[in-house]
């Protein structure tokens, strides 16, 4: 799973006041599935670059290709809802996606994008997901771009999510790697950096990222996880870095 920082659509008109706007052709959805992605987050500050029509088109293209869109919907409850996935070992995981960067405007309040401004739907979605899932993960778009430092808002929201039942929080938006943290035995990856991105060839931090591998059994997450560093080439395409990822142990348990 990953954060999708663009729309997949030929529809819609670009935002008039946007400095950067991103779109990909419809066939990109099939390319994502062929690359192995089961789901992508649409809860970010570029999903509405071309308006709600392009967002709906993106969801349709992804669904047709077998990639589950996360963090968007026709209502606020639908956008906030967790999506369920069955792993080969039989364990079920639930995943939510939340945008904590964009200021909610008309589109956010009508439910297109899951916005961190409105937290109650997430509390309810997490509670429902915990009732029948071995683990609950949350992909969050947050923090400051081009900064390795986490913000007070990131740390507070991560702990709120874990206090409400999330087992691991995985962040994006800064475009560079930020620290890994643990709270009550639950993991927080504040930012994984970039995986595929051609927008910062002269910025060293923007040309590196991490993949995270989490183990999930029928009893939950852990006891270990693995970080796999990647390096982007001049095209913005990734390769596994020379140093292989090593297995790390979760040192505390949820109370």
Note down, in words, how this protein is organized.
By secondary structure, the chain is of the alpha/beta class. Helix content is 21%, strand content 29%. Helix 2 (51-65) links the parallel strand 4 and strand 5. The protein starts with a strand and ends in a 6-residue tail after the last strand. 40% of the residues are buried.
Provide key terms for this protein.
alpha/beta; 255 residues; 15 strands; Purple Acid Phosphatase, chain A, domain 2; four-stranded antiparallel beta sheet; six-stranded mixed beta sheet; 29% strand
What is this structure, in a nutshell?
With 255 residues, the protein is α/β, with parallel strands linked by helices. The chain has one domain: Purple Acid Phosphatase, chain A, domain 2 (4-Layer Sandwich), CATH 3.60.21.
- Report the strand count: 15
- Sheet with the most strands? 6 strands, mixed
* Biggest sheet, spatial arrangement of strands: 6-7-8-9-11-10
Helicity level, as a percent range?
Answer: 10-25%
The CATH topology comes to Purple Acid Phosphatase, chain A, domain 2
Distance between the termini: 28 Å
Total count of helical runs of at least 4 residues: 6
Topology as H/E string? EEEHEHEHEEHHEHEEEEEEE
| Rg, alpha carbons | 17 Å
* Name of the CATH class: Alpha Beta
Mean pLDDT equals 91
Mind telling me which CATH architecture this is?
4-Layer Sandwich
Low-confidence stretches: none
Domain tally: 1
Helical/strand content category:
alpha/beta
Strand content: 25-35%
* General form: globular
